[in-house]
Amino acid sequence: MAMLSVLRKIVQEVSAAPDLESVLDLTVRRIQRAMHTQVCSIYLLDTITQRYVLKATQGLNREAVGVVSLSPTEGVVGLVGQRAEPINLEDASLHPSFIYVQSTGEERFHAFLGVPIIHQGEVLGVLVVQQHDRRRFDESEEAFLVTVSAQLAGVIAHAEATGSIQPVGNNLGGTAKIVQDRRFSGVAGAPGIAIGQVFVASLPADLEGVPDKRAKDIEREVAQFTEALEQVRHDIREVSKSLSQRLRSDEQALFDVYLRMLEDNALAGQVVERIRAGNWAQGALREVVADHVRQFSSMEDAYLRERATDIRDLGRRILSHLQEGVGSSEVEYPDQTVLVADDLSPAMLGLVPEDKLVGLVSVSGSGNSHAAILARSMGIPTAMGVVDLPFTRMDGRDIILDGYSGRVYVNPSDDLKNAFGEILREEQMIAAGLETLHDLPAQTTDGYRMPLWVNTGLTSDVERSLERGAEGIGLYRTEIPFMTRDFFPSEQEQMHIYRRQLEAFAPRPVTMRTLDIGGDKALPYFPISEENPFLGWRGIRVTLDHPEIFLVQVRAMLRAALGYGNLRIMLPMVTCMHEIEEAVEQIDRAVRELQEEGLDVERPPIGIMVEVPAAVYLTRRFARKVDFISVGSNDLTQYLLAVDRNNPRVADLYAPYHPAVLKVLQFIAQEARKEHKTVSICGEMAADPGGALLLMAMGYDVLSMNSNNLPKVKSAIRGCSLAKANSLLQRVMRMDDAEAIHQYLRTSLKKMGLGSLTRPSLPGRED
């Protein structure tokens, strides 16, 4: 237990360290003390020279730091890196790989334990402890060092990246070199290439998410900070005064503690110091608060440790006043803005003027999160889950975003900019060529007609979808208007929003999904806090528990459809017959109510979404109860493969072409057709040209996708025969590997002369 608390303390301290040098120095000192060894050292692999460089030591000669280096084939350190496993030796000098480096002074030490520092499968370096005695380190010591190394790997990777980005502010005068073409890997969110400048978006009063920015007017920043400080002092005095009669003296003393902290020049003075060194007030505040929190958190005394929470709270209060003082009118967005956020939310997509926004990057989330799906519908290249990106240090940096692979390149060289610029021009030419298909049907070379619909949610989707030749809406996400407000929209508000969609597409069908919140779609004014939200209270489960919300929404839909007759209502997350019956009963009630109010409304076609495994095996029974079936393949894939689509750690396991997924999709189509009901699909698989051909061959009646992919899918269908699509499907259904299936489809499209519809070959890609 003692070792566990030591480990927590080391990781906590190191995570808060301001730069790589501090991280390494703290690490070796803490480990040397915890393990009672004479030496602890860290060697990091220099990616340019491909040598292990001594970067920090406690016990060896300090002069050797940054000077001594070993190739991966030299020394026991090199062997640890080569094998990527621990090496524990009683006397390192007797090992055949041992190399004596005179300047280190390590000849005095015999016992040696080295463990690799591995992050995302790559060896970053080697962590070493040594002792005078000839002895083997025991199993518990080895286990401890391996555990520390695993915990530190991410922190070191992040600190390395932060150093290579080079922050603004008081480190500007340092010797850190800016590394060009620094690459960070995430997962593909929305396809395309973006070349631009970073603008970091942060949430209100989110201290940890505040970016560093160069102060344009230092005196103004100091004045804004001083004013915010005074406002917080005033707030605390007012609260203290109003509660003075109701609080005990010890509780009242807390306000005095806060005021003393604010009066203490250590906090305010340091913030002003960092502003004068070049960082804006919000970034300087974040740095100073983080320093103070780190110092208090590491103290032995429980009372002093609690002060870390107080400092954090004060920091947020000051930040809140600072943010109020910076109006949105003062924000200047670069002409080619790549919006970067810790956790990209749908609300953030509207921050930047549409004519300036060229790309989106999220540190959290995955390619199948709701934010990524919206980005695809807007046609904005996006990378998600770029977990190692030091986003707070990136504001204003040049960046290249590869939305096909989910990679971003910070501080790109001219050569890399030119290479990606060429691909960007090629993409624009292909897009211009696809526009000529607008008025042509999605019809195969042997005459089979495939209706192509779109998924919408944003007002701007309507115009974009019609421009690309959409024949209907297969999924209108009604939760989007709910997500962009501070309270539930009224029946009248909803009616106007829905009417715009129905009017624009009339007489073409518009399928409106009833409110689908929960999972990764949260409403700020209706929070749902659950251990596992994807297996929790979401979709139809919420609306059936709240008939007052459901009825208002259905009434708004029915009223909006008056005079158009093109509404279809779709129920999400259905798992049992009871849910369908109850929802249909509510819809019928809304129809009756409106008819009694004198409105000439009719009951529209009602359908369900098949997106949980339980619904798959009840498809035929459900089909007897409803008018149409629609498959939500994104969630269905997630539930079938037990892969959280928002978790970048398992993003590689989310495989739309997994043989089990394909088998289930084919089964659903067959079951629906047995009851002579139309079956559509509105997941992202329909937006992929290869996937669209397979779904067509499976017998899906309608494919619904984001509007930006519609021309590509139409081009694929027009360039292929139904017979060829059937033959592709038969071959694919005999294959047993998702990646092999994906590659086979890409190769087949190229052979059919449709290679331009697959993702382009990009610089830095291994495949």
TrEMBL record:
<comment type="similarity">
    <text>Belongs to the PEP-utilizing enzyme family.</text>
</comment>
<dbReference type="InterPro" id="IPR036618">
    <property type="entry name" value="PtsI_HPr-bd_sf"/>
</dbReference>
<dbReference type="InterPro" id="IPR036637">
    <property type="entry name" value="Phosphohistidine_dom_sf"/>
</dbReference>
<dbReference type="InterPro" id="IPR023151">
    <property type="entry name" value="PEP_util_CS"/>
</dbReference>
<dbReference type="InterPro" id="IPR029016">
    <property type="entry name" value="GAF-like_dom_sf"/>
</dbReference>
<dbReference type="Pfam" id="PF02896">
    <property type="entry name" value="PEP-utilizers_C"/>
</dbReference>
<protein>
    <recommendedName>
        <fullName>phosphoenolpyruvate--protein phosphotransferase</fullName>
        <ecNumber>2.7.3.9</ecNumber>
    </recommendedName>
</protein>
<keyword id="KW-0762">Sugar transport</keyword>
<dbReference type="InterPro" id="IPR003018">
    <property type="entry name" value="GAF"/>
</dbReference>
<dbReference type="GO" id="GO:0046872">
    <property type="term" value="F:metal ion binding"/>
</dbReference>
<dbReference type="GO" id="GO:0016301">
    <property type="term" value="F:kinase activity"/>
</dbReference>
<dbReference type="GO" id="GO:0008965">
    <property type="term" value="F:phosphoenolpyruvate-protein phosphotransferase activity"/>
</dbReference>
<keyword id="KW-0479">Metal-binding</keyword>
<keyword id="KW-0598">Phosphotransferase system</keyword>
<dbReference type="Pfam" id="PF00391">
    <property type="entry name" value="PEP-utilizers"/>
</dbReference>
<dbReference type="InterPro" id="IPR000121">
    <property type="entry name" value="PEP_util_C"/>
</dbReference>
<dbReference type="Pfam" id="PF05524">
    <property type="entry name" value="PEP-utilisers_N"/>
</dbReference>
<dbReference type="InterPro" id="IPR015813">
    <property type="entry name" value="Pyrv/PenolPyrv_kinase-like_dom"/>
</dbReference>
<keyword id="KW-0963">Cytoplasm</keyword>
<keyword id="KW-0418">Kinase</keyword>
<dbReference type="InterPro" id="IPR006318">
    <property type="entry name" value="PTS_EI-like"/>
</dbReference>
<dbReference type="InterPro" id="IPR008731">
    <property type="entry name" value="PTS_EIN"/>
</dbReference>
<feature type="domain" description="GAF">
    <location>
        <begin position="19"/>
        <end position="166"/>
    </location>
</feature>
<dbReference type="InterPro" id="IPR008279">
    <property type="entry name" value="PEP-util_enz_mobile_dom"/>
</dbReference>
<keyword id="KW-0808">Transferase</keyword>
<keyword id="KW-0460">Magnesium</keyword>
<keyword id="KW-0813">Transport</keyword>
<dbReference type="GO" id="GO:0005737">
    <property type="term" value="C:cytoplasm"/>
</dbReference>
<dbReference type="GO" id="GO:0009401">
    <property type="term" value="P:phosphoenolpyruvate-dependent sugar phosphotransferase system"/>
</dbReference>
<dbReference type="InterPro" id="IPR050499">
    <property type="entry name" value="PEP-utilizing_PTS_enzyme"/>
</dbReference>
<dbReference type="InterPro" id="IPR040442">
    <property type="entry name" value="Pyrv_kinase-like_dom_sf"/>
</dbReference>
<dbReference type="Pfam" id="PF01590">
    <property type="entry name" value="GAF"/>
</dbReference>
